[in-house]
Amino acid sequence: MKYVLSLGVLVLAGAVMMHAQTQKPAQSAAPRPVTSDRTTAAPRFTAAGELIRPTDFREWSFVTAGLGMTYNQPTSAARTPNFTNVWVNPSSHQAFVKTGQWPDKTMLILEIRASSSEGSINKGGHFQTNLVVIEAAVKDEARFPGKWAYFDFGRDMKPQVQALPVTERCYACHSENGAVDNTFVQFYPTLLEVAERMGTLRPSYTSTPAAH
Ligand code: HEC
Questions:
Q1: Which structural domain, as residue segments, surrounds residue 114?
Q2: Residue 134 belongs to some domain of the structure
Q3: How far does the centroid of ligand 1 lie from the alpha carbon of residue 180, in Å?
Q4: Is residue 212 included in any domain, yes or no?
Q5: Using DSSP, how many helices (H) and how many strands (E) does the chain show?
Q6: Mean pLDDT rounded to a whole number for the chain
Q7: Domain of 169: which CATH number?
Q8: Probe target for ligand 1 pocket from 61, 106, 110, with the most ligand atoms within 8 Å of CB
Q9: pLDDT of res. 25
Q10: Does residue 18 belong to any structural domain of this protein?
Q11: For residue 200, how far is its CA from the centre of ligand 1 (angstroms)?
């Protein structure tokens, strides 16, 4: 009886050990696949055609930071200036540096941030503070009749949005005043140099966009 019992215990212990062994975390001999949503190549859309806000645009190619730019008559001179930070998806940036033109599936992000001049050790000038809004421009010839479409993710950083209607002022101002293919390359110093060298600036571009 005693023997049978201890045999039973032994079998049980063996089963537990085997179980413990199978439960060991799998030894991963193969390297884990690189999972990243880094949007280097193409803007992503939902099935309903909404543009998905890229979460990693701060890792894209940085284009410029405008300060206090205004396209209306300068009535708002007393306001604290906003910064306008512009990024572009890296593969399109590389293409532009080579050709002076934007390939299809280019996406640019405009981040507007408030500024302050008072804080910490600062004695003059402005530094960036709260997020005001995130907007986007996407070039997709098959998807949009006018090639480019404009998006507003809002202050609340919506995860996905439909393109703004073509009657929005974005379309007219960008297509009439942008120096290269709807974009304001005239204000992006490193890209302006490329466009000048490649001869891709719109012949009629002026450095002062039309007031409206
Ligand atoms: C009156 C002219 C005007 C209007 C209207 C306008 N923009 Fe712009 N936009 C500009 C200028 C000028 C810049 C360059 C900003 C800078 O240098 O910081 C710019 C830059 C941008 C950029 C960065 C890429 C690029 O095209 O150069 C995006 C994205 C953008 N705007 C989106 C929008 C959206 C979305 C709207 C409409 C809701 C809009 N814009 C309305 C003048 C305009």
A1: 38-70+79-118+125-198
A2: yes
A3: 13
A4: no
A5: 4, 7
A6: 83
A7: 3.50.70.20
A8: 110
A9: 43
A10: no
A11: 19
Q: How far apart are CA 51 and CA 160, in angstroms?
A: 5
Nearest to 110 by CA among 127, 129, 126, 132: 132
- Say yes or no: CB of residue 110 within 6 Å of ligand 1: yes
- Is the distance from the beta carbon of residue 140 to the nearest atom of ligand 1 less than 6 Å? no
The answer to whether the CB of 135 is under 6 A from ligand 1 is yes
Q: Is 170 close to ligand 1, i.e. is its CB under 6 Å away?
A: yes
Give the pLDDT confidence of 103-153 residue by residue, as tens digits: 999 999 999 999 999 999 999 999 999 999 999 999 999 999 999 999 999
Please state the length of the chain: 212
∠ at Cα 50 (83, 34), nearest 5°?
A: 80
Round to whole Å and give the CA distance between 89 and 130: 23
- Residue 60 included in any domain: yes
